[in-house]
Every structure is written in C-alpha cells, then in structure tokens.
Specification:
Distance between the termini: 164 Å
Number of strands: 23
Number of helices: 1
Order of helices and strands: EEEEEEEEEEEEEEEEEEEEEEEH
Helix content: under 10%
Shape: rod-shaped
Structural class: mainly beta
C-alpha cells in the first residue's frame, strides 16, 4: 500500500496558497500520480498531478478565508489514504495608502508626502514606494524619509506659475500591490518688491522720483498712485525707478500721494502691494549763496563807505 504524504500549505500570493509534500513511500510499486484537494464549507477543488510533482498552488481563493488541504498518492495498488487535513488562510493585497501632501512655498517649492500604515493582507512585511510627476511629465521616484514619508522639490517655476503635481504611494507585499494617489497644485509665489522711496523734485513743476528694491526673477513692475484718495493712475515699468508727473496739473504742496508698487509675473499676475504715502512739502526757500556773501564783505573792506556821520 502506498504511504500517505504530508500536506504543507503556505501563503504564496494574493488569493493563493501553495501546498507541498514529500515523495510518498511507494510500497514497492512506483508512484503514478498525486491528488491534492482544497476545500472549505461548500467549496472543493481537486487537482491530479504527475508522479514528479511536489507542490501545487491554488489560485483565486477568497482572501481572509481559511482552507483545508489533503494529499494522497496512487500506484499500481490503487489510491492511498488521504493525509490529515492541514489548513491555511488565503491572503489579500495590502490596503490602499491614504496620501497626504504638504507644500512649502518658495522660489523652489517643496512637497512633503506622508501616508498611513496599511493592512498587510496577512503578510509580515509591507514595502512602500513614492513616485511623482510634475505637470503630466515623466514619473520620478521621491526621496524616501523615515517612517511613512517622502519628499521632493518642484524646480523651474516662474513667479506666479502653478502646476499640478500627482503623487502615488504603492504598498507591496507578496500578496500583491495597492496604490493610493493624490494631486495638488504647486505654485511659486510672486515676490513682493520692497524699499520704496519717494523723493520730490522741485523745478518749474513738482515731480516725484520713485525707487525700490528689485524682486527676484521679476523684470516688470506695476506702479499705481493717487492724490488725496482720488483717481488712481497706473503704469508698468521695466526698471526699479520711475518719475511721476500729474497729468491733471502740477503737484502741489500739501497733497498726499499714495504710491503702490507690485511685481508683475510673466503670466500677468501681480504680487501683494508695497505701498507708501508721501505728503508733498513746500519748495525749499532760496538763500543767498555763501560765496556771494563773501564777495560783498570783500567789496566793503576795500571800498569803505565815506561821508557817513
């Protein structure tokens, strides 16, 4: 009589259980074939395998369910006894990661990626990978950090430019993979000019000279101004200085002039405003130049006045 082989089930992949056994003692007659059976409740699957087979993998099993397995061998004397039942639970793919994105704005925005621990689906180890694409471009692997985290930079943006960034995090076990994704728009802010100075120049008409500090990667500035809260005038300048004249008439002492300077991005958007209000003072009083006074004193020293009593 052929001996009974011993069934050893083990998890192989998602919904898969691999059953293995040792060669059965043939009792003096060569083994002709093996039969392996998987069953639970109202499910049963039988497979007949060659004499050289030592394992079989059952697929499409329901994840999270326990299955029983038996093996028997056949030789010329007939089928031997079935092995004692051995059991194993079918596995499922890991859970889908929930992806969170945190964007740090700057000239080169940075994106921090984090995700939750997922259900391993019955396996001991879960591996993770994070990938990203910028504006529909090719996928790149993010820099993995400690724990469930990763990060990457979004370089090459113009001031005011905004692009979609898609991030995918894949959890992987021997039971399969699951991927969570998230999309976020990442923008480079428009830098604000600062250091605005307003200097009046007094001539036949009063003009106001403006100067401000350049903002990074900005070549055009929007300048707006108004007198005593009245109508606002606006113009664009390609430098960090401007001269204002009043199109409705000359500036006058006592007027309050509010000036606002904004950076204009390549896409036409403008930065937050940098404003300053200046009250025009009276023109400086004319005085006799000191060299003319010196000439008068010299004249009287050499040509003293006479005939005074």
């Amino acid at each position: 009589e052929v001996a009974t082989p011993n069934a050893r089930p083990g998890r192989d992949g998602s919904g898969e259980i691999r059953v293995s056994w040792d060669e059965a003692d043939d009792g003096g007659n060569a083994i002709q074939r093996y039969e392996v059976i998987a069953y639970r409740d109202d499910f049963e699957q039988k497979e007949t395998l060659s004499a050289r087979s030592r394992s079989f993998t059952f697929s499409n099993l329901e994840g999270g369910k326990e299955y029983n397995f038996r093996v028997r061998a056949q030789n010329a004397a007939g089928w031997g006894k079935q092995s004692s039942p051995a059991s194993a639970t079918a596995t499922t793919p890991p859970g889908k990661p929930r992806v969170n994105l945190t964007v740090s704005e700057g000239d080169v925005p940075k994106v921090a990626v984090s995700w939750n621990d997922v259900d391993s689906g019955g396996f001991d180890h879960v591996g993770y990978e994070a990938w990203y694409s910028i504006n529909g471009g090719r996928e790149r692997r993010a820099d993995m950090g400690s724990g469930n985290s990763a990060s990457f930079e979004v370089p090459g943006l113009d001031p005011g430019e905004s692009v979609p960034v898609e991030v995918s995090v894949t959890a992987e076990t021997r039971g399969g993979t699951s991927t969570g994704t998230k999309t976020e728009h990442v923008s480079r802010p428009i830098p604000e000019p600062d250091g605005l100075k307003i200097t009046p120049e007094y001539g036949s008409n009063i003009t106001l000279e403006l100067d401000w500090n350049a903002a990074p990667d900005i070549s055009t500035y929007k300048v707006s101004w108004s007198i005593d809260g009245g109508k606002e005038e606006t113009d664009d300048y390609s430098s960090t200085s401007a001269v204002l004249t009043n199109s409705d008439g000359p500036f006058e002492p006592g007027q309050k002039v509010k000036v606002t300077v904004q950076s204009r991005a390549p896409n036409g958007a403008t930065s937050d405003a940098h404003s300053k209000t200046h009250t025009i003072g009276p023109p400086p009083t004319s005085t006799t130049p000191s060299n003319e006074l010196a000439q008068v004193k010299t004249y009287f020293r050499f040509f003293p006045m006479t005939g005074l009593s």
